[in-house]
Amino acid sequence: AMSYETILVETRGPVTLITLNRPKSLNALNSSVCEDLIKAFAAFEADPDQRCAIVTGSGEKAFAAGADIKEMADKPAAAFFSEDFFSRWTSHVVKATRKPWIAAVNGFALGGGCELAMMADFIIASENAKFGQPEVKLGIAPGMGGSQRLTRAIGKAKAMEMCLTGRMMDAHEAERSGLVARVVPLADLLDETLKTAEAIAAMPPLAAIGCKELVNAAFETTLDQGLLFERRVFQVLTATEDKAEGMGAFIEKRAGVFKGK
Ligand code: CO8
């Protein structure tokens, strides 16, 4: 098994549960967290028995309160530029992960924490969750996707207001605004997210990958190109064994057994 410094990784059947584990600094994202998450996502993606992942935060207070301010405070600009810190999350976590994953936001999701949550395929939030992009207060701006993903998720008015004022949005406002899929009591967050992940894990895996690629394509293409891509993915999926099984199981009124073939 892999060993990690800053996260906990366990498997629950076909679901990989990744817990950010620096509770004393409200799970702030430093370079070790970055490396650990990249390793954990690579292991998840490579294991054919793992079909959905969850990222959550340890403790009851925070998902992640941002990039680690103590690590950034004395770092020279040239180092930020040359390290291009976090660019590997885009390539190694977001783009390299074809399988679905969910952010279970259990408290503060601020700055880089909000940005990490928005990298997930969707967010399930506890009632005490708080989202924000407070970078402006530190004399910086969002640096790992906040200005782009938040704007796409909730629109210009609210995204601009949040980035300019640094104010937090509670879980219910986040749900109304389209940032989170569902809000549940904190005590139920892990169980509800695991249930959702298990439901996804039971789906035909290639169809799940197809759905993820298609929804993501909606942010990258024109409507015409997106619709064409959708038809092509649909057509490809009709050639899979799991499509024969899925339709056969429906007609025979039994549960399908899917192989990812
Ligand atoms: N980094 C480092 N340490 C942190 C962070 C953080 N982001 N957030 C909290 N902590 C630490 C605190 O310093 C404190 O440590 P200690 O006990 O040693 O003093 C501990 O966690 C507990 O925090 P608080 O005592 O502050 O807890 P409160 O309940 O009083 O407040 C808050 C909770 C409101 C969440 C508060 O901690 C806070 O405002 N945190 C900072 C939030 C923030 O500004 N986040 C944005 C950071 S910048 C960012 O994420 C940029 C991303 C893109 C970077 C790209 C770089 C290339």
From TrEMBL:
Which protein, by its recorded name, is this?
A: enoyl-CoA hydratase
- Family assignment from sequence similarity: Belongs to the enoyl-CoA hydratase/isomerase family.
Enzyme Commission (EC) number: 4.2.1.17
| Entries under Gene3D superfamilies matching the protein | 2-enoyl-CoA Hydratase, Chain A, domain 1, Lyase 2-enoyl-coa Hydratase, Chain A, domain 2
Its GO biological process terms? fatty acid beta-oxidation
Top-level EC class as recorded in UniProt = lyase
Which SUPFAM superfamilies is this protein grouped with?
ClpP/crotonase (SSF52096)
- A GO term, aspect molecular function: enoyl-CoA hydratase activity
Listed A to Z, the keywords are: Fatty acid metabolism, Lipid metabolism, Lyase
Catalytic reaction(s) noted = a (3S)-3-hydroxyacyl-CoA = a (2E)-enoyl-CoA + H2O; a 4-saturated-(3S)-3-hydroxyacyl-CoA = a (3E)-enoyl-CoA + H2O
PROSITE patterns from the entry? Answer: ENOYL_COA_HYDRATASE
Which organism encodes this protein? Novosphingobium nitrogenifigens DSM 19370
The role this protein plays is: Could possibly oxidize fatty acids using specific components.
